[in-house]
Amino acid sequence: MNFYKIFIFVALILAISIGQSEAGWLKKLGKRIERVGQHTRDATIQGLGIAQQAANVAATARG
């Protein structure tokens, strides 16, 4: 009976320590994904601005 309690205690401590280390790795991955999303958003906004300027130039050239 004591072995069972010790086993559960050790398993619980192990699960807590693995869970904390895993959270750090997952947080880093989330930040990388967020950064990629921000770069994509910024590039899209910049691309739309350039396309709009090109459309304005084309409309002005046509008269």
Structure report:
Keywords: Amidation, Antibiotic, Antimicrobial, Immunity, Innate immunity, Secreted, Signal. InterPro entries: CecC-like, CecC/Srx/CECD. It comes from Drosophila grimshawi (Hawaiian fruit fly). This is GH18419. Belongs to the cecropin family. This protein is mainly α. It is 97% helix and 0% strand. It contains 1 helix and no strands. It has one helix spanning 2-62. It is rod-shaped, with a radius of gyration of 27 Å. 0% of the residues are buried. The mean pLDDT is 86.
Question: How would you describe this structure in keywords?
Answer:
63 residues, rod-shaped, mainly alpha
What's the layout of helices and strands?
Blueprint: H1 2-62
Keywords: Amidation, Antibiotic, Antimicrobial, Immunity, Innate immunity, Secreted, Signal
Protein name: GH18419
Family: Belongs to the cecropin family.
| Overall number of strands | 0
Coarse structural class = mainly alpha
> Total number of helical segments?
1
Approximate helicity band: over 70%
Radius of gyration: 27 Å
Which of globular, elongated, flat, extended, rod-shaped describes the shape? rod-shaped
Low-confidence stretches: none
Give me the strand/helix succession. H
Give the biggest sheet: none
In whole angstroms, how far apart are the ends?
91 Å
Q: What is the percentage of strand-forming residues?
A: under 5%
Mean pLDDT: 86
Quick structural summary:
By secondary structure, the chain is mainly alpha-helical. It is about 95% helix and about 0% strand.
